[in-house]
Amino acid sequence: MAQVSMTVNGKAVKRSVPDTTLLSEFLREHLRLTGTHVGCDTSQCGACVVHVDGRAVKSCTMLAAGADGASVVTIEGLAKDGALHPMQTAFNDNHGLQCGFCTPGMIMSGVDMVARYKAEGRELTEAAIRHELEGNICRCTGYHNIVKSIQDAAARM
Amino acid sequence: MSVADPLPHDSARLHVTGAARYVDDIPLPANALHLAFGLSDVAHGVIEALDLSAVRASDGVVEVLAAGDLARPADVSPSAHDEPLLAEGRVHYAGQPVFVVAATSHRAARVAARRAALRVAPLPAILTVDEALAAGSRFEGGPVVWDKGDAEAAIAAADLVVEGTLELGGQEHFYLEGQAALALPGEGGEMHVIASTQHPTEVQHKVAHALGLPQAMVRVECRRMGGGFGGKESQGNALAVAVAVVAQATGRPCKMRYDRDDDFLITGKRHDFRIDYRAGFGRDGRIRGVAFRHLVRCGWSQDLSLPVADRAMLHADNAYRIPAMRIESHRLRTNTQSATAFRGFGGPQGVAGIERVMDHAAHALGLDPIELRRRNYYAEMPAPRPDRTPYGQEVRDFILGGLTEKLLDGADYAARRAEIAAWNAGQRVLRRGIGFAPVKFGISFTLSHLNQAGALVHVYTDGSVHLNHGGTEMGQGLFQKVAQVAAAEFGVPVSAVRITATDTAKVPNTSATAASSGSDLNGMAVQAACAEIRARMAGHLASLHQITPDAVVFAGGAVQAGGARYSFAEAATLAWQGRVSLSATGFYRTPDIAWDRARGEGRPFYYFAHGAALTEVVVDRLTGEYRILRADILHDAGASLNPALDIGQIEGGYVQGVGWLTTEELVWDNAGRLRTHAPSTYKIPAFGDRPAVFNVALHQGANPAATIHRSKAVGEPPLMLGISALMALSDAVAAFGGGRVYPALDAPATPERVLAAVERMRG
Ligand code: FES
Ligand code: FES
Question: Does residue B716 have an active-site annotation?
Fold first, then answer.
C-alpha cells in the first residue's frame, strides 16, 4: 500500500491505496471524480487527460503514487464558482461533442494547449491544434467541431 | 418554436463539466462485485478440461461460474438462441467467453480471469469466406437469390461488360465508452439492470429468460451511451445477462465493463464482404443489367446477419435505375467474432458494390464518373411515372439529380477536375484525385413489425414536463430532438422539458434504437402523447371560458383561452383542479410499409434519405500515403428538427465511413486470433485525418412522407458518403498509370494497398 497525498481541484486529499493504483483509478474510484473517463486503458485515447502540476497528462499512464505531492485538476475542477471555463463554454456553443465520452479529455488537453501556446507566444494554428490532439480520439464528431471549439476558446482565453 | 432550432446536445453542459453519468460512473452499494470473462484463445475446439481452482483462489474472488454451474441455460443472442452466455462444451471463436469471475474489484476480477487452466482440443477452424464456401458452412441452408428480369441476358446483350471483385473489410465500432452493465438485485427476486445498450427491451427479455423471471420483474434502464454505432444493439446482452445471473446467484450488485482489448476480442464488428460483379452497359452509359454475388462473413453465430445481408441486397441499386439485376447473397458461418449491426447495417456494403460498378464502367467507357452516374439516376421527384427499385418499391421522393447539381456547382467540380489534371501532369511523386458518391438510403426496419414506438409524458402542476420514450441516447442527439418536439406541442421552452432515462418500466416492448429510426418513431410517439394532454387541457379551459377547444392557443410558454392568458403552469394547475389527467402515453407505427422477405418484394421503406459527397485526395507514390484535401457534402435531412445536431451526424458519419474504407484494418492471424485489438494497431481516424477543407451543408426541403415535422432520419446515411474517398483514391492511383488501367482498389485502402495499386499502375 502507498500513502498518497495530493491536492485535487484545490482540496487536499490523502488516501492509502495499493501501489499499482493508477491515477485514473484513484480519481474515479477513490475520490469518485468520474468525469475523468477511461476509454482504452492503454494510454491511447486521451479520454482520461487531467492536469498534473499544470501539465496535461493521461491519467491512465501514471500511478497515483507518482502524483504524490502534486496538484491535480480534473474536469470537475475547471469551472470556477459555477462559471464555466471558456473552453467548456466553447465546446457547448460549437457543438464540440456528441456522446460526450471524449469531451473531458479534449477539454483538459485543449486548456493545456492554449495556455502553453499563449505562454510561449506561439500562434495556435489549426494545424497545430490537430497535431497537438493526435493522442485524443473521438469516434463521434469527425473532429470538425472540436477544432472549432478550441479555436473559439483560444480567442476567449 | 423549438423545432428546427440548432440547440446544443441535451447533456452538453453535463458533458463539458464531467457531470454526465455513464454506467461505470454510477456509485455502487458497498458490497458490489465486479465481473470479468475468461476467454478462449482457440478459434474452434472441444473443451477438454477447465480447471478454475487458481481463479477461485485468486485475491478478492467471490464467485466463478462456467456453463455447467448456471442454474439454467442462458442465451444472449438477439433471435436465434444460438449464443450461450458461456461456451458449452465447444468453443467457436478466439475470444469467446468460457467462464465468468466475480471479485471485489474490476482489477481483481481481471487478474483472476487469466489464471484458469483451459485445455481445448482444436478442431479445424473456418476463418475465411473461401473456406466457408468450400465447407458449406453457412446460415439459411443456401444463398438468398433475388432476380429482377434476366440479368445474364441483359449483360450478354450489352455493348460493354465490366466485371471484377471488391473486397470490403469489417470495422470495429470503437464506441469510446466500452460495453458496460450493472445489476441491482431487488426484493422478491426483482432485477434492475442499468446498461449501455441500444436495446433495453431485448436486454430485459434476455435477462428475464436467463433468470427464469417474468419480464415484469426485470427493469432495464439506459440514460446514455458513450457511442453505440450498432455495436450496442445486441453485443451488450452478454454483459447484462452475466451481471444479472451473478447478482441472482450471490444476492449482490454486480457490474461489468469490458477492458478495451476484451471488447475488441469478444464483440462482433461490421460484416466484411466480398462482392463479385458483372455488369453490362450501353454505349450511352446506361446500365442494362448487373449480377452481384455477396459473400458475407457472419462469424460464429447468426446474430443480426440475416437482416444485415438483406439490407445490403436492398441497397445494391443505390441511386440507379437498373433494368435487370441478380443478387446472390451467401451468409457464411466462420469461427470468428459474430459480425453484427454497424451504422448502415449492410447498406454501406451494398452501396459500395454498385458504386464500384459505376466507377469501373465510367473508366471503361471513358466517361466522367459523375456524368455516368447521373445518366443512371432514378427519375427525379415529382416524377410523372416513378421508377421502381429492383425489389418493386416505387421511388417517389428521389432528389439526387438536383442535389448533385447543387453540390457540384458549390464545390466547383468542373474547374477543379481540369486543374487537378493539369497539376498532376507536372508532378513526379504526387497525384491528386477526386471522387464522388451519392447515397439513397431506405428508412424503416426491414422487419416491418419493429416500426413502432411508445412514449410516456407527464405534465406537473408547476408546468414542468417529464418526457420518456423508447429511444436511447448514444450521442446522436435523439433526446434533444424529441424534447424539441414535446416543447413545440406545448408551446413551452425546451428547458421546461425534463428528459429522462430510457426505462422498460415506463415504456415497454420497444424496438432497438437503430435503422436511423430513433427520432422518426419516438418523435411521433411523443407528439401523440403531448397532443393528447394538450387536447385535455384545451378541453377543460374551453369549457371554463365557453369557447371551442381549438380556440385555446399554446404558445410562448403561455396558454390563451378566450380573453384570459395563463402561464403554462397555471393552465396545468387549473386542469388538475378540474380533475383532468395530465399524463398520457403515445404510440406510433409507421404506415404504408409491407415487405415480403422470402420473395424479396414490397415496400420495405417508408421513404428514402439522400446525400452526396465530393472528396479530393493526394497520394504519394513512394509510400502509398495519402491525405484528404477537401470534402464537400450536401445531405438531405428533410426539414431538419435540429440542423446543428444533424450536421454533426453528417460530419461524424462521413469520417467514420472514410475510416472504414481507408485506415481501419482488422487482421486475424492464421489461427483465427484477432491481432488488431487496440487503437495502437487498429487505426481509427484521428485529428489529422479530418479533411483539410470540410464543407458540410443540409439540403433543406420537407419530407414528402408525413414524418415528424417532415424531417428525415440522419443517423446512418452519411456514413456512405465516405465511399467518395475510396473513389478519390482510385482516381489518384489511376493517374499514376495515366488513366490506362482501372485500379480496382479494395477496402480498406490502407497506404500498403494504395502503394501496391500504384505499383500495378506503373507496371
Ligand atoms: S484511458 Fe487513458 S488514454 Fe485512454
Ligand atoms: S463525442 Fe463521442 S467520442 Fe467524442
Answer: yes
Strands A2-8, A71-73: pairing kind: parallel
Nearest to A137, CA basis, from B716, B728, B663: B663
Q: Of B318, B285, B251, B262, which is closest to residue B113 (Cα–Cα)? A: B262
Q: What is the pLDDT of residue B739?
A: 84
| A32 contacts B687? CB cut-off 8 A | no
DSSP B192: E
The CB of A139 under 6 Å from ligand 2? The reply is yes
Determine the residue of chain A that is closest to B692 in CA distance: A127
How many residue contacts between A and B have a Cβ separation below 8 Å? Answer: 173
pLDDT in the model for residue B516: 83
Cβ pair B324, B151 in contact under 8 A: yes
Q: Which residues contact B102 (CB under 8 A, 6 or more apart)?
A: B33, B34, B35, B61, B62, B63, B64, B109, B246, B250, B254
| Rounded CA separation B24/B182 (Å) | 8
This model of the complex carries an ipTM of 0.98
For residue A104, the ligand closest to its alpha carbon is: 2
CB contacts, 8 Å: A134 with chain B: 686-688
CB atoms within 10 A of CB B498: 14
Cβ contact (<8 Å) for B687 and A107? no
Query: Which residues, 6 or more positions from B298, have their beta carbon under 8 angstroms from its beta carbon?
Result: B139, B271, B305, B309, B331, B332, B333, B334, B338, B339
Mind listing the domains of chain A with CATH numbers? 2-77 (3.10.20.30), 86-156 (1.10.150.120)
Residue B174 CB contacts under 8 Å (≥ 6 apart), including other chains? A137, A139, B227, B679, B682, B684
HSE (CB half, 13 Å, CA atoms) of B281?
A: 26
Q: Which of B355, B716, B752, B759 is catalytic?
A: B716
Nearest of B619, B628, B534 to residue B582 by alpha carbon: B534
Spell out the per-residue pLDDT of chain A, length 157, in tens: 999 999 999 999 999 999 999 999 999 999 999 999 999 988 999 999 999 999 999 999 999 999 999 999 999 999 998 899 999 999 999 999 999 999 999 999 999 999 999 999 999 999 999 999 999 999 999 999 999 999 999 999 9
CB B342 within 8 A of CB B299: no
Q: Which residues are within 8 A (CB) of B178 and not within 5 positions of it... i.e. 6 or more apart?
A: A39, B257, B258, B259, B260, B263
Identify whether the C-beta of residue B726 lies closer than 8 Å to the C-beta of residue B663. Answer: no
* Amino acid code (one letter) for B247: A
Closest CA to A97 of A140, A48, A126, A136: A140
